[in-house]
Request: fold
Amino acid sequence: MKPVLIFVLALLLSPVDALADAEQFLTCKQELALRASEAGISKQGIERALSSLQFDQRVLDLDRRQPEFTDTLANYLSSRVTPARIAEGRKLMRTHRRILQHAADRFGVQPQYLVAFWGLETNFGSNLGKIPTLNSLSTLACDERRAEFFTAEFLEALRLLERGHIEPSAMIGSWAGAMGHTQFMPSTYMRYALDGDGDGRIDLWRSVSDAMLSAANFLDSLGWHENVRWGREVQLPKQFDYSLAGLDRPRELEEWRNAGITDANGKRLPAADIEAALLVPSGHRGPAFLVYENFRVIMRWNRSEYYALSVGLLADAIAGGSGLVKAPPADLPRLKREQVLALQEALSARGYDVGEHDGVLGPATRRAVQALQKAEGAIADGQVDGEILKKLAVD
Ligand SMILES: [Ca+2]
Reply:
């Protein structure tokens, strides 16, 4: 084989991709410098930041990683709302009582919620992330997938450094650029972070006081309702129409009371003039929840129902609650993307509308499962379980 041909072949083989990314990064770095200059960052600041800037392949690998399975609620909660985390949260509520009360008084966010976010985001500061934030943000800014978003965050990070409260070397965090005890992105940091301990600096890595006041300020800006809970576990009547469930189907709390829904122990729900949505995230065998406006606020922090449930449940437990009355079933299948796709195709072949065939178990697919269950005379909770998979010959 001629040397030129070998060279061309070598270029076509995969390891070159990483090299190409790294080379492209050098060009991109110059563009970022230009953008920073246009954004009004000082020449000195740009030079200081760019001198040590490095492309990080791990960041791209993590960004492109797809979860192998859908998660079950049982699995999700058991790794996040753990007895150890609840005990630590209770301890920290006492240790930081004054700090938390100050944040609660100023922004109306109850202390247990601040501690719950803290526990879920960084395990109370024990996992702040180790990746230099400028590296992760610039690597993602130079990748085509979400270049604009991460370029904007990179520029915010430079602005943050211009304030002089932290050194570039101290600015570390997650692979996606989230920083400090409550994992703020630079734009959130710039807009909502506050100096809680009054030392004249805003430092979300080293000051718990700054981090808790900042989290309260951020939640307040997202619309937190003072002194209202996130929602609660409830008990449904024996015969229940599960098609009423879903975050997109809120009703007056009074209507749910009239429909026979009680608290988790069977007691009448307190009367309140609020809207609530019913969630039954692991089917009729698992717990049901009525969620209020603050649940939606939590989802503005992180757009995941499971995440929002874990914040609410951890907060309740930290405040002395005894946990779920009904545990989520542990025997529900974790599905691979291909299985969800096969499920969607099988449902579609039977005439049920699943929306896009995307391998993602979303609301449309659940509604299709529900319609099938209803047609079969089964309990129509929309839960994909072993029975549904068997019926549709998905393995
Ligand atoms: Ca401070």
User: Anything to note?
Assistant: The longest strand covers residues 231-235. Residues 16-66+128-222 form a domain with the Helicase, Ruva Protein; domain 3 fold (CATH 1.10.8.350).
